[in-house]
Design goal:
This protein is mainly α and 167 residues long. It contains 7 helices and 2 strands.
Length: 167
Amino acid sequence: MTSSDRTDASDRTGDGPAGGPGTPDADGLLAEQLLRLTRRLHRIQKHHLEPVGITPAQSRLLRTVAHFGEPPRMADLAARLEVVPRAVTSLVDGLEAGDRVRRVPDPHNRRVIRIELTDAGRATLRELRSARRAAAEDILAPLTVEQREVLGGLLSALVDRGPESGC
């Protein structure tokens, strides 16, 4: 058992340092649990992506490229992913080396380069869907169907907040 697993266990039993619901730091405890869950989900996804030969960041970029109606520009990807353009360049370089995307000239402006999926990229997306489902099942395994539905509603309430949330 790792130290983070022990921390997870103590927090689930209410023996953690912040106490149970209704204590002054209950929101702080919830925030910490969400952060630990996020890190755990990232580790599990990374594990499931290893056989595909892709990093979580490359996976996100590949999915983002696929959601555009036409091949996006690097600047479009950086804006959508909320990262600096240099980060997109590094990710595209890695995906291009694996023949998952390719840089193509814009048909209307030869100074613009667009990023398009290759056949290997589309095949990788199919593999990614399976890997993500397996990772989600690993994380959600302890929950019943009803608990998963409740969690989905709670997460939607947190994730779907409007721009007034400040983030």
